[in-house]
Amino acid sequence: MNRLAGIGMTSARTRDRLIRRLQEQGITNPAVLDRIRTVPRHIFVDEALASRAYEDTALPIGFSQTISQPYIVARMTEALLEGGKKVGKVLEVGTGCGYQTAVLAPFVKKIYSIERIAPLSKRATATLKELGVKNVMLKHGDGFQGWKSQKPFDGILVAAAPLAVPDALFAQLANKGRLIVPVGPEGAQQLLRFTRNGDKIEREILGKVAFVPMLGGTA
Length: 219
Ligand code: SAH
What we know:
Blueprint lengths: L1 H4 L6 H13 L5 H9 L20 E4 L2 E3 L2 H12 L5 E7 L5 H6 L3 E8 L2 H13 L5 E5 L12 E6 L8 H5 L1 E11 L5 E9 L2 E10 L10
Parallel strand pairs: 3-4, 3-6, 4-5, 6-7
Antiparallel strand pairs: 1-2, 7-8, 8-9
Helix pairs in contact: 2-3
S-adenosyl-L-homocysteine binds next to strand 2, helix 5 and strand 4.
């Protein structure tokens, strides 16, 4: 129990400081802010980094990957939920340590999350279980293919940056569904939101971001 609650640098007080910072940066959805306050980010990182878990920064999780910055997780979650309608099925590409998955879980019916690095997917499964997050299904695989057997998705959230949006993701997006994805080469990425309207797909630019690259195949 104590491990989840945290003490000192992982305490409620430290978390409140992070929430204030996110508000200053323009995150306004109170439910999202509350969820970030509640999810114990320190259990997603190595114990040696736990004291830095409530800084608004990406941190290493091994295999040259990082846990996403809290601001980015908040921004993407907000962008997916905007408008207040309950979201049904969501596809997440890039489970990583499962932090974004845990933040998003209570806002949607079910999350299908794909990670290309097997040990990360395995560890995320254990962490999400420890947290009691139940409406998720994790799989080791290549997100460029999407998750065909579960399509269509009301939301798709991509946590690694492709150079161009994979066709499979557009193909698996439900009508009125939203796809949030960082696109572009390192140093010049933009966070985009696509909304399907029948055969038309509307595109919005949400801002400049820095994600790890989306890579093909599995590891
Ligand atoms: N939201 C995650 C972010 C992890 S970083 C978190 O908070 O931990 C992005 C992740 O995307 C990495 O774990 C990386 O291995 C994964 N990734 C990159 N390309 C991928 C692909 N084609 N399919 C699935 N996962 C991919």
